[in-house]
Amino acid sequence: MNKRISVFCGSKMGDRPNYHMAAIDLGRSLATNQFGLVYGGASIGLMGAVADAALDAGGHVIGVIPKNLEEKEIAHPKLSELRVVDDMHARKALMADLADGFIALPGGIGTMEELFEVWTWSNLRIHRKPCVLLNVDGYYDDLLKFLDKMKTAGFIKDQGRSILRTAESVAEAIEALED
Hints:
Rossmann fold, seven-stranded parallel sheet
């Protein structure tokens, strides 16, 4: 079975066209590089864009969506598999279990929560799966500065900080997964 990558991203498109373009590029690139996609199961926003692109490129796409968001986020009707779970905890646990690595595109609070949880788990050696932050158009620049501040202030060790890889392009993100 091919490796699967869990992508965390917004259920909205954001304010820059490049976020949408990066989601399309990432979905297509995952499929053409023989990675399956695991994501939040929605047909809207960047989530829908990454899934549509992966599907259009012949990829296998698994969506994981909580019952209470099935209508709000508009569950994607054309996925390879859609798994409906009880709640957000179950969603995150299943996405992490199904994935061999993680990429975060731009997104909001949910994206941050998902990314920070899998990064924390890696830091605690609960898993050894790559975690990549795709910094489209500098979206995460301020966060990266803050993470470096956390390191210099003594709250994150160098090893813990280095677990979260940063990519400026989809190609760099794919490369980080393959390293």
